[in-house]
Every structure is written in C-alpha cells, then in structure tokens.
Design goal:
about 210 residues, 12 helices, mainly alpha, single chain
Length: about 210
Amino acid sequence: MYFQYGEKEIEYLKGKDKKLAEVINAVGMIERETDDDLFSSVVHHIIGQQISTKAQATIWQRMQDALGVVNADTVFSCGRDELQSFGMTFRKVEYIEDFAKNVKNGSFDLEGIWEKPDDEVIRELSALNGIGVWTAEMIMLFCMQRPNVFSFQDLAIQRGLRMVYHHREISRELFEKYRRRFSPYCSVASLYLWAVSGGAIEGMKDYAPKKRQK
C-alpha cells in the first residue's frame, strides 16, 4: 500500500506555489509505502531509531519470521530474550514490551486514536516510551495517512526547503510560513521535499552555509 494522493492535492499545491509546482512536474507521482497496522508501525519505528535502514529491515524481517503477526499478544509470548536475539538493544526491547503492555491493559487505545485530531495523536504517541514527536509525526503520515503532516524536526524536509527556495537556513517562523502555504496537504508537500533532498532533481543544491574546517 502507498500513501494515497491524487490530482486534488497536486493541483492545490501547484496553485499555491510556483516552485513546488516545478518540483511536482519534474518528479511526477511518488509511491511511498505505508503500513496501516498501528501496532506494527510503532514497533517498526522503535526498531529503526539510530540505525541504518538496512539494519532496520533485517531486524524487522527476523521479527516477522519469528512471530508471524507482530501484535501485543505475539510480543508478550515471545519474551525479552528472543526479542533481543533479533538484533535489538535491551532498551528498545523494553520500549516494545512497554507498548505491548499499554495496549493489552487498555491504557493505549489502538482503535480510538484513529478518530482523534492530529495534535492529540501526537500527544498520545509521543507519551509512549521510545516515541518522540518526530517519530509520532512519521507514524501519522506513513501509517495513519494523515494529510497535513509537516515535521520541523525532519532534517531532510528542512534540506528540501533550502534546496527548492534557496534559503541558507530554515527558522521556525519560516517553516511555519510554508506549513500555512501547503496546508491542508502538507503530507504531499513533504513527499516532494524528501524527494528533492534525496537528489531526485539533478542540479539542485543545498544552500546551507558550508561549515568551516577546524
């Protein structure tokens, strides 16, 4: 499954911003995979913290192979030692076990959170051990497919903004200006800024000041 968007979102953003329109025309439609299972998405993001994408994929595959379905019941039945044997740190195992406990005892409502507004979703997800605001925002976008996610903490989005708009730095005030411009389709704008940051358009450069060598 990919993040769902189409002509409505594209035409809105192109009408709001000429430079973003040029990026959208150059890049075309973007297919970014999503996972609509909230429990497995949270676990997947915890696993991926501070490690490479390749390492995350390896650990996640081991976990899926061993558990079949990654949910609160299978995590509990697995046990701490087996979870750690997949390649996770002890701290990440603790985070995942704690999340599973919160789901099983009802203190975290896996179903009810889907009905809540973005600010409440961020508050509830980031209250979990091992989940910060940035991770909560990524879960909102790549699991819940919320349409208006724009993360100030995401360095690649900041880089994309510098590249498209030739800024030397992105202040919070400047970032919020773009959030207002792209809203209510900030998630789609984020997809294109990530693409730019990753080198999707040849010749675009980062205008951040070069760091002086000591």
